[in-house]
Amino acid sequence: MPSPFPGMDPWLESPEHWxxxxxxxxxxxxxxxxxxxxxxxxxxxxxxxxxxxPGDRFLPDVAILRTSNNFATAPNLPGASGAVLxxxxxxxxVEEADEVREPFVKVISTNAxxxxxxxxxxxxxxxxxxxxxxxxxxxxxxxxxxxxxxxxIDLLRGGQHTVAVEQRSLTAQYRGFWDYIVCLHxxxxxxxxxxxxVGLFDPLPTIFVPLTVxxxxxxxxxGALFSRCYDExxxxxxxxxxxxxxxxxxxxxxxWAAEWLKQE
Length: 264
Prior knowledge:
This protein is of the alpha+beta class. Helices cover 27% and strands 25% of the residues. The protein is built from six helices and twelve strands. The strands form four sheets. It has a six-stranded mixed sheet with strand order 1-6-7-8-9-10, sandwiched between helices. Strands 2-5 form a two-stranded antiparallel sheet. A two-stranded antiparallel sheet has the order 3-4. It starts with 14 loop residues before the first helix and ends with a helix.
């Protein structure tokens, strides 16, 4: 059973469902590439590791002055004149960073060097905010400065703009409005990007996957892959379309979505 929408399904952007979307879509992309890659190349799945900490150090606030014998007075507090309070010893807590692993696809040469030719990222919420975004952007810069191509697929409306092309550059060239974005940076072309801006109402595009010089670029039908992702995943059993999606839709978008769902 395919998704009820012509393009991206906004209900699948919620954290409840996105993990499955990400895992299945990455697997399908790698599998499809291995069907069509010429000899000398292979698509493999690797992992990014993100270290995320909810906090560093927490020291409880105290409203009294601690002395060497752990007693102090509380100055200027109403009714506390001459009173002696016991100061509770604070505890210092260092929280461990959470290790989060996320898969991505890389196309490699099958010679002895196993050279990375193309990196394909499907962005997750962790890539678009906070420390996870900082770590992703660091890796992104390393790839942009390398001999590998970078293909980024962002099917999430929430979070900050994160793909390699600057938002202001994209806005200057593309006058319309987009909800999703696919960004391709070919190695060795400087600050030149190929982008596919996609609206909520639009079908997902067919995108390019470059290889080495002299090898023809491949194409991936992102819409077909997403349909397979929905069909092979748990979504028709787990998504409740009577609930408001996360992020919320605008009133006009919600009306459009309701009309599409009625057709199912």
